[in-house]
Structure formats: C-alpha cells, structure tokens
Design brief:
This protein has two domains: 204 residues; 110 residues, no CATH class. Strand 1 and strand 2 form a beta hairpin. By secondary structure, the protein is α/β, with parallel strands linked by helices. Helices cover 34% and strands 25% of the residues. This is AAA family ATPase. Pfam families: AAA_21 (PF13304).
C-alpha cells in the first residue's frame, strides 16, 4: 500500500493543500507550528483504520464511527469534538480531507466546525484492501512501558494520543516465525552494530543484551537507544515489513548526532525493502544526510525517490504554504539551512568584528 496524494481543505493550519508524495521517502521540514506533525497525523488517521483488513462488512454508520474515533484519538481535540479541527478562520465552517492510494483507491472525510461525533466518510476501492501495516513512531519512546500501557489505556482514560497505544500494541506482538529476508537482516545488522547488542523480550518486558555483560532493562538505556530497539523488535515481529507505511515524528529527538547517519542508512534500507517513509524533522544532520543520498548516485544505487517538503507561513496572511523538491538544496524556504547560515554569519561577525 502506498499513499499517493494528500488533499486538505480548511484543516487546522492548512487552508488548502494538495501534496503528491513519493512512494519511497518523504522528508518534511519547517518552522514550529507550520503543520509538520499535522500532516503525519492526518494521513495516519485516514490509513490506519483499514490497515488490518476485514472492514468490508461494516455498515456506513459503523464505518463513520471507526474514523471519528480514530481522528478523536489521534488529535485529541477539547471534549473530543472533531469540529475543533476545522480551520479557525472567518468563513471556514467545514473541512474536507482525503488521501489517494495506489490502484485508484481513495479515503475521504469531511465535517463541519459544530460537529462532535459525526463525519461524512467515503471509501473508494476497486478491490478489497489487503492487509498492510501502518506504524507511527512519536517523539517519545514506548518500548520501556509496553508491559502495562495497553491494559491501562483499555481500562482508563489516559491523556496520550492514540498513536502511542497503537505502537504499544505492535510491540506487544510475539516474534514472527520463519527466517528474515535479506533486507531485514541488513537493517538488523546495521542497528545491532550501532547498539552493540540485541533486543530480548520476556513476559512483555524488553531487555538489551550485551555479550559478556548480561541483560539490561530498557529503562536503563537512553531514549535514543530505546527508539532503535523499537525498530529492531518491530522488524523481528514482522510488523515492519515491505508492506508497511512508516511515519516517524522527529527521529532526532534525544539522539546523539553521531547516530543520525546510521539511522538515515537504516531508513534507506527500509525504503529499498518497500517501506514508504514519512519523516518530520527540525534537524540539520537528518536533512543533509538524506540530501546526500538524493544527490549522489553512488549513495542511492536503487534510485530511491526522495522528496523534501518545506512548510512555511506567508508573512502577511500567516497562511501555511509548502514547496516540494527532489533536493533540500533546491528549497527556497528551508528553515533548517537558514538558521545554520545565520549561525555561521553570527560567528563570522564575532571573529571579524562586523
């Protein structure tokens, strides 16, 4: 399954957007409050409900409620009123948004700003949607809390966005049977080389095993290593496979800059395996590592299509706009590079007294 296009009308910060995505890797950048995470969340809330298949027997009303609950859980608007996600501009009283998928499949949702639990849902498909996996990795890791999180979320009102719950359930899956494919082994090898150890699960608890030193509880590892551990286990359990769509929100969070290059290399191998990847980032190193892969054929022998999407606000109207290029260097609005250049200029001013 691949997401081909996202269309937004009057949705949160976006008055109008129509973004055509790469089947391989999409890097989303921009200043704070321009909607990077919103793009990931809205696509996730549209594609996740159908990922397990078996939705053909749902009535129209049941289908609507599946989507309403997912949107409520992912965005968590005040009092769970989905109408609060409609753009707050004068005259905008309804939002409509959709994703176009491969094989002429499309999922569309719309609702007014006074709606609480109702939405108009339309699903177009030429054939039964086959099972696929959708993974959203938020900024906070989950592998150290899997043991109790799912049951607590099921029984109590916990103020966590539903992506955390979905991720915890994926981490709760047992290991898959059968050997890994070559690409999976390559990713696992890269990650285990970075971490110098292996991931072990016992009774819903995860441990990091280092040869000659024993097993260490996940809570004793850095947040960055826990995120890498999640990737490893989801590959081992079969959740992260060639039919997966992966959303990763700010992978640089709590990561040592030395780990950025191997992380990018891992995502490149996942894309080569068939995973469609969406990454939001503020990080210079992540953007430039992907830019190098996009720019130099020797780093991209399989000719992966890498798109760079920059979100920015109009200084007069404050509307959010976007541009998409095949190279980060070609972006006219690149907040990451602009700040990097500004820092360089400030240092030169100090050195030369300008």
């Amino acid at each position: 399954m691949k997401i081909k296009k996202l269309t937004l009308n009057n949705f949160m910060a976006f008055e109008k957007a129509e973004i055509n995505w790469s089947d391989n890797i999409n890097i989303i950048c921009g200043e704070n409050s321009t909607g990077k995470t919103t793009l990931l969340k809205v696509m996730y809330s549209l594609i996740k409900p159908l990922s397990s298949g078996g939705k053909d027997n749902l009535t129209k009303e049941m289908e609507e409620q599946v989507y309403v609950k997912k949107i409520q859980g992912v965005f968590r608007p005040d009092e769970m009123k989905i109408g609060r996600l409609v753009s707050r501009k004068q005259g905008s009283n309804r939002t409509d948004f959709s994703i176009d998928l491969e094989k002429k499949q499309k999922i569309s949702v719309g609702f007014g700003n006074r709606q609480e639990n109702h939405a108009d849902v339309s699903i177009e498909r030429d054939e039964k949607i086959k099972k696929y996996d959708v993974i959203y990795i938020p900024t906070k890791e989950m592998i150290s809390t899997v043991e109790h999180f799912v049951s607590l979320y099921d029984e109590y009102h916990i103020d966590f966005e539903e992506m955390y719950y979905d991720l915890a359930k994926l981490l709760d899956r047992p290991l898959s049977k059968g050997p890994n494919i070559t690409e999976q082994n390559q990713v696992l090898s890269n990650l285990e080389d970075i971490m110098k150890g292996q991931i072990v699960q016992k009774n819903k608890k995860f441990y990091f095993k280092i040869k000659g030193e024993g097993e260490f509880e996940m809570g004793l590892l850095s947040d960055g290593y826990r995120k890498l551990s999640m990737i490893i286990y989801m590959i081992l359990s079969g959740s992260l496979n060639k039919n997966t769509i992966l959303f990763w929100d700010e992978p640089e969070t709590n990561m040592n800059p030395k780990m950025i290059r191997p992380i990018v290399q891992v995502m490149v191998v996942l894309a080569q395996m068939g995973v469609q990847i969406f990454v939001s980032t503020h990080d210079y190193f992540i953007q430039q590592e992907f830019n190098m892969v996009a720019s130099y054929p020797e780093l991209n022998p399989q000719k992966l299509d890498i798109k760079f999407i920059s979100l920015f606000r109009d200084e007069k109207t404050m509307d959010v706009h976007y541009e998409m290029k095949n190279s980060a260097s070609d972006l006219e609005h690149n907040a990451i590079m602009q700040e990097f250049d500004a820092m360089y200029d400030r240092e030169q001013g100090i050195i030369y007294g300008e």
